[in-house]
Amino acid sequence: MRTRLRRLDTTALVYIALVIVLIIAAILVSTTGRNLFSPGNIRDILTGMSVLGFVAIGQTLVILGASLDLSVPYVMSLASLIAAQTMDGRDGMVIPAVLLTVAITALIGLANGLFVTVLKVHGFVATLGVGLMLKGYLDTNYQGTEGEVPWSFQLFGASGIGPVPISTVVMLALAALVAFILVRTTFGHHLFAAGGNAEVARLSGVRERLPIIGAHIGSSVCAGFAGLLLASRLGVGSPTVGSQGTYDLLSIAAVVLGGTVLMGGRGSIWGTIGGVAIFAVLDNLMSVMQFNPFLKDVIRGLVIIVAVALYARRRIIARRIRFAQAPQGPNIATDNRAGSETPQTENLGERAAVTGEGSRS
Prior knowledge:
two-stranded antiparallel sheet, 16 helices, about 70% helix, about 5% strand, disordered C terminus
């Protein structure tokens, strides 16, 4: 049984954990006389996934490149304000507002990427500095909500297909697009290479700066999408809507819970979506059970620590298998026809298990 679990990639383990969380949550919710899988409750869970999902998709990109993005909550707030002020309640300004928001957030991501790659500032420090500059701009120029979002754009955050919100469908479509880019394009391969070992990637002919810059642009644009969704739900832009949700830390937590390695080079978008789903189910459970709001953060922290500890232990076990000493005694098979000797020192099943663990999940 343990060998089978070791052969599973991290993404599969995340979804096994999600199923277990769903079963436990369903049992606990049933004690209150409610049904976890009722259409209304499913809609609440999926709605909770949407905003964090957008941010976590972008955060996955930068973490795969061995960086971080702590500017996302302020990018979200700025995006909501740009969109609401540009739309100003007019249906005809929806598309220009969205395009302007995407362009400005992309420029912020470009600045983050250049600071990291050209100035050699660590992503943690560079994006923290950019985030503080954005915070200063927001605090100086905005005292409260601004602008107005027309009803046609509010449908983005309010409508759905049955119990599935439109925003969740868009978020999953974006996740599929990014997953395709990571697996099937040169950019994705180079991002994995640069995140795994930038020096080796450079010596292999990879221009390691470009994928890191692209990852930061993608992260900021994804945060911009999250800001657009929040503006759609609120009907206005807010200078604090991103920071109040602590989406920087929550997105990193979801990415780590999804199995992406903080040091870069290994992970997957679908693992991140699984991590987002686990957080959404836990938040819904704690809301139904009326947990203390401060206790919610304690539980989130425990879940993250346990998950990372299990991933670390799993990798250690896999390494022990791979580098185990050869068994004592006669372990050399002699081929009389060829006159050669072939050492029989590695079990093929163990080799396959280790190879699976070392892949890109």
